[in-house]
């Protein structure tokens, strides 16, 4: 039992709740309280509109330590740079076509991924949620199946629901995870920052070889991101792919220089 407790403590330590662009300081405290009741302790704030204040601590109701230890980042990309899996909480369909997960399945998969390293569960702004650029940084999306006739959940309530599912998964009460297109990450899966470096180089390479032929690149990049994220690339995979892209860029430069020389002659 002690061994199981130790394992669960390590896994819980790898689970972080990320609040993006929080507009009301009290909601930070309420979210911290929701987390602490479920044994979670890693709170991350991304560009909050207002810093935590007296309202935050009042709403935390004893979870002041989570607020005081919370990490603060200027961007979501920085906040999840070391993560092995990033899950975006969203209330509606977006143009970013992420794999949709039920909260129970999401919690089970988050727990498996946490064995490999840090996992982030990301929540957006109270009024508008996560924007498309932020969702694009996520591996999958989770949607709380609330009543369509009155589907609005406040931020802390959403954090409470998903923290509860994570708690159940940690305690082994949630049952087996549902079937998913994407297998959970392994211990060797590449960190988020490595993948973002790959995607940035891929975008540059596609531009250099005129892959898009004048079409908007966003659609192709969204599909390519999903394809690579489903593959659960490890660091060696990323290095190999970036090596291929580097050679592609080099050949594109040589071809471009040859074309310029030909025109000059």
Automatic annotation (TrEMBL):
Species in which this protein is naturally found: Thermomonas beijingensis
Keyword presence, Cytoplasm: yes
Family annotation (Gene3D superfamilies): 1.10.8.590, 3.40.1280.10
GO molecular function ontology, one term from the record: methyltransferase activity
Function: Catalyzes the formation of 2'O-methylated cytidine (Cm32) or 2'O-methylated uridine (Um32) at position 32 in tRNA.
Homology family: Belongs to the class IV-like SAM-binding methyltransferase superfamily. RNA methyltransferase TrmH family.
Quaternary structure (record): Homodimer.
Entry's localization field: Cytoplasm
Residues passing through the membrane, by range: none
Keyword Transcription regulation part of the UniProt annotation: no
Record-given protein name: tRNA (cytidine/uridine-2'-O-)-methyltransferase TrmJ
E.C. designation(s): 2.1.1.200
Taxonomic path: Bacteria, Pseudomonadati, Pseudomonadota, Gammaproteobacteria, Lysobacterales
GO biological process terms, semicolon-separated: methylation
Catalytic activity: uridine(32) in tRNA + S-adenosyl-L-methionine = 2'-O-methyluridine(32) in tRNA + S-adenosyl-L-homocysteine + H(+); cytidine(32) in tRNA + S-adenosyl-L-methionine = 2'-O-methylcytidine(32) in tRNA + S-adenosyl-L-homocysteine + H(+)
Keywords: Cytoplasm, Methyltransferase, S-adenosyl-L-methionine, Transferase, tRNA processing
Source species, domain of life: Bacteria
Residue stretches making up the tRNA/rRNA methyltransferase SpoU type domain: 15-164
């Amino acid at each position: 039992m002690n061994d199981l407790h130790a394992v669960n403590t390590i896994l819980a330590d790898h689970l972080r709740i990320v609040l993006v662009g929080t507009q009301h300081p009290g909601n930070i405290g309420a979210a911290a309280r929701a987390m602490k009741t479920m044994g979670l302790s890693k709170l991350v704030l991304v560009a909050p509109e207002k810093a935590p204040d007296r309202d935050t601590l009042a709403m935390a109701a004893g979870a002041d330590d989570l607020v005081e230890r919370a990490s603060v980042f200027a961007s979501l990309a920085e906040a999840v740079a070391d993560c092995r899996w990033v899950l975006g909480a969203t209330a509606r369909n977006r143009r970013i076509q992420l794999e949709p997960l039920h909260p129970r399945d999401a919690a089970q998969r988050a727990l498996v991924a946490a064995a490999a390293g840090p996992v982030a569960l990301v929540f957006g702004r109270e009024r508008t949620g996560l924007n498309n650029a932020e969702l694009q940084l996520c591996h999958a999306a989770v949607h709380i199946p609330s009543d369509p006739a009155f589907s609005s959940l406040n931020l802390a309530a959403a954090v409470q629901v998903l923290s509860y599912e994570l708690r159940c998964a940690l305690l082994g009460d949630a049952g087996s995870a549902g079937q998913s297109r994407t297998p959970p990450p392994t211990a060797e899966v590449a960190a988020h920052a490595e993948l973002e470096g790959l995607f940035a180089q891929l975008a540059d390479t596609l531009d250099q070889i005129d892959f898009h032929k004048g079409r908007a690149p966003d659609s192709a990049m969204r599909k390519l991101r999903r394809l690579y994220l489903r593959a659960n690339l490890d660091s060696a995979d990323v290095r190999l792919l970036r090596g291929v892209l580097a050679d592609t860029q080099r050949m594109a430069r040589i071809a471009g220089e040859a074309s310029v020389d030909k025109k000059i002659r």
